[in-house]
Amino acid sequence: MSQIISFSADRDFAAIFDDLIQQSGYKNRSRFLRDAALYFAEVQQKGDLMDIDDQEVVEGHLVVHYQHGNGDQKLMVTRTDSVEVAAYHHSSRLGHSCHLCVDVVHVRGDALHVRGVFEQLKNTRNVEKVVFVSAPMRQEECC
């Protein structure tokens, strides 16, 4: 069931608010504010992957954009005892480029070790971009 939550804003912010929502790809204020609040709370509580305490367990997805050469080359993430790889998805030939690949790797482990995998991927030949997307924070364990 929905609940209405309101907030006040100064005139300057209110004037650009709908443009900010639209430019962010949202079609309504409620979803934008919900996602913005969750993202902000997560960043405030957990921080960026590079700032999280070494021993804190993190879970999320490493999204890796890279160019492959001839053939169907997959970027392999080394499985280690310190980082659990729950799932690995490889896509190639996105859009008009026949050489663009995207791998999505679901990982879980100590922040120190996940950062190590992140840095390894970032420094791999032909990798153009690596992003860590953390899993949503949960107040309770599920399942």
Describe the fold and architecture.
The protein has three helices and four strands. It has 143 residues and is an alpha+beta fold. The chain folds into two domains: 11-45; 52-134, ACT-like. Chain A, domain 2 (Alpha-Beta Plaits, 2-Layer Sandwich). A four-stranded antiparallel sheet has the order 2-3-1-4. A hairpin with a 7-residue loop joins β2 (83-92) and β3 (100-110). The longest helix is centred in the first third of the chain and has 17 residues, at 29-45. The model has no long low-confidence stretch (mean pLDDT 83).
At a glance:
With 143 residues, the chain is of the alpha+beta class. 29% of the residues lie in helices and 28% in strands.
Major sheet attributes:
4 strands, antiparallel
Low-confidence spans: pLDDT under 50, at least 5 residues? Answer: none
**Percent of residues in helical segments?**
25-40%
Class computed from helices, strands and strand pairing? alpha+beta
Morphology: globular
Q: Reading side by side through the largest sheet, how are the strands ordered?
A: 2-3-1-4
Which CATH architecture of the largest domain?
2-Layer Sandwich
CATH topology of the largest domain: Alpha-Beta Plaits
Rg, nearest Å: 19 Å
CATH domain class name of the largest domain: Alpha Beta
